[in-house]
Amino acid sequence: MTVIVNGERRELPAGATVAHVVALLAGDESGRGVAVALEGEVVPRGTWSQTPLRDGARIEVVAAIQGG
Amino acid sequence: MDETLVIAGREFRSRLVLGTGGFKSHDMLARALAASGAEMCTVALRRLDPDAHGSILDVLDVAGVQVLPNTAGCFTARDAVVTARLAREALGSNWIKLEVIGDDRTLLPDAVELLAAAEQLVDEGFVVLPYTTDDPVLARRLEDVGCAAVMPLGSPIGSGMGIRNAYNLSIIVERASVPVVLDAGVGTASDAAVAMELGCDAVLCASAVSRAHDPVAMAEAIRLSVQAGRLALAAGRIPRRRYAEASTPEEGVPAFGEPGAVE
């Protein structure tokens, strides 16, 4: 299936969850300092591995950087 | 005069808040942070960069400072609210520096969206510190909806133009019952001193330090100027007058007569 991750299309296996995407980007599943929004709604860390993605989903994975 | 700054029940000995934007490296940030004495630092949230090495959170953890996430880059109340929720999830803190920008050239706050976002976030339990204009009415409205502080600008972000409307800032300070933090516009140490002399409770600056030729030295200069301004405020300045007032007694001035005259 195709998922829009941080504005880019990515092919993911069916059944992939938010946790898979975090691990893909962050390199590990702890996701320290990381937060996720799925279709504009925050997905709490504790539910990443139980939150499946559907085809065409828009997911934003963010972290703290220098700013302000 | 109380020695500590208290925001939402949390005490700070330093009245300087350091923004972390613009530093050329995490190492430079760490050194400037140490020189600034700041106990709270802003961070922004952006899309996770898989190629980034080292997190700013490590730098701030080592320094032992409070992390204050912002909503920089948000143009609508909705974007700011979602960003604040993401920050709470990412950082485990309900403090948020609320920025809702109305124009990407001036980076001035959008008053309407800002107030709406502030109200929503207070309702959701956030400690909201809004970046606002130097408008006393808007500052009052933000306080009324429950913001924990108000953070008026001195001049636009990164402009280094100092405090352009000291009268408005004074009115905000006089009427606020929450801390007033000057946010944006500081270009050099004297600007921070002026803010504190006007009665601001703290100063937040980023570019003034991070983009200075020597950020570590400027961090120290602004740390000292914040202290100096605070001390001068407590000391009580003399009133401004249009004419001179001699500081030397006028009595007892010797009279020398005309040259060559014999008395």
Please provide a written account of the structure:
The complex is a heterodimer of chains A (68) and B (263). Chain A contains one helix and five strands; from the N terminus they run E-E-H-E-E-E. The model of chain A has no long low-confidence stretch (mean pLDDT 91). Chain A starts with a strand and ends with a strand. In chain A, strands 2-1-5-3-4 form a five-stranded mixed sheet, covered by helices on one side. By secondary structure, chain A is mainly beta. Chain A has a single domain, classed as Roll (Ubiquitin-like (UB roll)). With 263 residues, chain B is α/β, with parallel strands linked by helices. Helix content of chain B is 38%, strand content 16%. Chain B is built from nine helices and ten strands. Chain B has helices at 26-36, 56-63, 77-91, 111-123, 136-144, 166-175, 189-197, 207-210, 215-235; strands at 5-7, 10-12, 16-19, 40-47, 66-69, 95-98, 127-132, 151-152, 181-183, 202-205. In chain B, strand 1 and strand 2 form a beta hairpin. In chain B, helix 1 runs parallel beside helix 9, helix 5 (136-144) runs parallel beside helix 6 and helix 7 (189-197) runs parallel beside helix 9. The model of chain B has no long low-confidence stretch (mean pLDDT 95). Strand 5 (58-66) of chain A pairs antiparallel with strand 4 of chain B, so a sheet runs across the interface.
